[in-house]
## 1
Amino acid sequence: MNNSSYAERRSSLETYFDRTAADTWARLTSTAKVSRIRETVRAGRDEMRGTLLSWLPEDLSGKRILDAGCGTGALAVEAARRGAHVVAIDIAGNLVNVARERAPTDLKGAIEFHVGDMLNPALGHFDHVVAMDSLIHYQPADIANTVATLMQRTRGSMVITFAPKTALLTAMHTVGKLFPRGDRAPAIVPVTAMTLCRLLKDRPESLGWNYAQTKLVTSGFYKSQAFELKRG
């Protein structure tokens, strides 16, 4: 996929997560003490991770999984515990370094860490793709393009998350624009499941794929919607 809006957004996300917020995210994804607001975000992310993992087979032995936007590697570790060979990739090299340092050595499966673009065709094909909160900053058309591209390389299922389009999240998004650009994270772009389905429906890559299930996870300032697509 050669898309300028996707590439521009990816570049700004790389700068933010690899430099501006690297220490914050490393702390948030650890057991270190954080503020009450970040505690709600941590709890929401834990619930979402558990949800996405519950939609994958319990036994992942011999399965190849793409963890697209792996961050500090918590989901990749849990999938590898089930026997998966996980290709864990993120645009933020500092976060991937943390993930490598935290990864246990006694996993049933294995984790292969990469720094770069989740759409790199050199990563190969997969049985399942997981993209937890790695698409929430992109425009709906770019989310659909990303999903459609990965559909061509996926044999089983895709489990992703997106920012649900609610009145509260839209208001938070608007208020966030009032802060100086250097003091805020790249904007989250709310979208509805219906919009994503509509954008994907006419894509030739989606032929043979079906919507399976969805779940909204809300915890304080954390709001994200899980979405599963299955082949066949």
Note: The longest strand covers residues 209-219.
## 2
Amino acid sequence: MTNRAWTVIGILRESARYLEGKGVDSARRSAELLLGKALGLGRIELYLQQDRPVTEIELAEFRELVKRRAHREPLQYILGRVEFCGLDINVAPGVLVPRPETEELALLAEKELRELAPDRIRILDIGTGTGCLAVFLAARLENARVDAVDIDPVACACSVSNAERHRATDRVQVIQADLFSDGFLAMVTPPYDALVSNPPYVTADEHDRLMPEVRDYEARHALVAERNGLAFYDRLAELVPTLLKPGGRFFVEIGRGQDQAISSILNGVTPDHVILADTAGIPRMIRGVTREEIPIC
């Protein structure tokens, strides 16, 4: 951008063209949100004030934001937030950005757990990241108490900030722990009524082909799993009988094309499970119920 006098609408047009040339998807939307951040305005306010002159100080701040986006830094990291199921969620650099598919998982779990309607329901969220699942379920289910687990201290801090933001610290406990460690069960307090998770399920080869926003900025350990993306589900099958009560429920996101392999992994311990498609018709979630105890006669 030159040093000519700029108005809101002129900046939007120019920056959208610039970002599009850098390969940024939805370049106009990025320009709107970044300019809104620089000016402290919402999207509608930008267009209501489209002829407003922009000061040099405001323009300098905006240029820095656009530069970051042009380098393909995720928009959510630059803004520091993302909307998840109607909640404003803090996002820290390196922490997995919540996806629309995970919103579908959250809504499924909330609906089914609400229908159970016990006086108190204990939920374990594995790989909590921003804490979006844990905070959403705690906010929507008054009788829920959630243990939100992640191996990454940055993710744990982000989860705490979101629990604080939505006044759920009395219902969300954040725990730093490694699911694959021998001491994992000692770090949590099973048995739980339900388990939710958006785990890593991307293969190393798939990771290399992801968009730069994901491949170069989001934490690799939150995306990539060993054994062709299936390591988490192997561990889940091993621990579910201990982590969940008899008749406990789990709601877990899965990767594209993994449904049959994951179903086979879980058949031995939780035969009562079903693969569910997202709104695009892609198998994206597995919902299951653990075996009830058989009474001894």
Note: Strands lie at 81-84, 87-90, 121-126, 144-150, 172-176, 192-197, 244-253, 272-277, 283-289.
## 3
Amino acid sequence: MFNFILENWMFLTGGLLIGFSVGILTGFFGAGGGFIVTPALNIFLGFEMNMAVGTSAFQIMGTSAFALYHNLDRRLMGSRIAFFVAAGIPVGTFSGFYAVQLLKGKAAWHILGRTVDPVNFTLLAVFAVFLAAIAGWLIYDNFILRKDAGDDESSHVGLLFPWRLPPVRKFRTIPAGEFSVTVLILLGVFIGFMSGLLGIGGGVILLPALFYLVGQSTKYAALTGTMLVFVSSCFAAIFHAAGHNINYPMAAVLILGAAGGTKLGSILQSKTSGQAIRKYFAFVILAAWLLVVYKLTRIMM
């Protein structure tokens, strides 16, 4: 074991640093950090994208468990919303995993005179578009649209609130009123699909989705998101384990590093306003997008 550590100390140190950073993100934003881990494993540690996705999913499962331990309160606020969204996650997660497996069986593609791996290129391209869309909306909303709106979220209404697909029910963390259970389940299907496809745990979607679409306040959205990240990453980890897409030593190192980071992230979140959390989240996603664009550029050069 000692010789293994000596021979792989740079590899292990990189994993610990990534894990600690992602732990802070999970504790602070309720996001599992897969949108950082997946490209980081690919770019800095040389993992193939399918292995980066699977290892990231396994790591998120452990990290989100730590975050729930630090953040969950006795009232279980947000748990009912998490339950209904989670009902749609298994179907979506399997669909995303199946898409990755189909890509693994494809022959190399030739794009602009370059030979590229279908898995790496497709997942990185989807990642880039996805992160750009979320970062762009968060920057527009928090720095332009709501620039002088303050931090009052009591009258906030989600964009999907008018979709009254039955059944509807009252939730403690949605102040606008009764919300459609069907819409929550369909949201879970989409989140599960992105989790299985990209190994992101869904957290990068959940904070903006639960705030802008469902209508939760920022901090309850982060808490509900942490619950859902744990559920979606469990399913994603199971499917990717069956597909042999997980590097278990690296996953263990990432989880070890995250153990301390989640506590620090939870402490910082308790001292930060909801509006500030959303602003910081925009910059984190923007940084992840730049990493992915850099890797895509390298592939095409």
Note: The chain has one domain: 2-300.
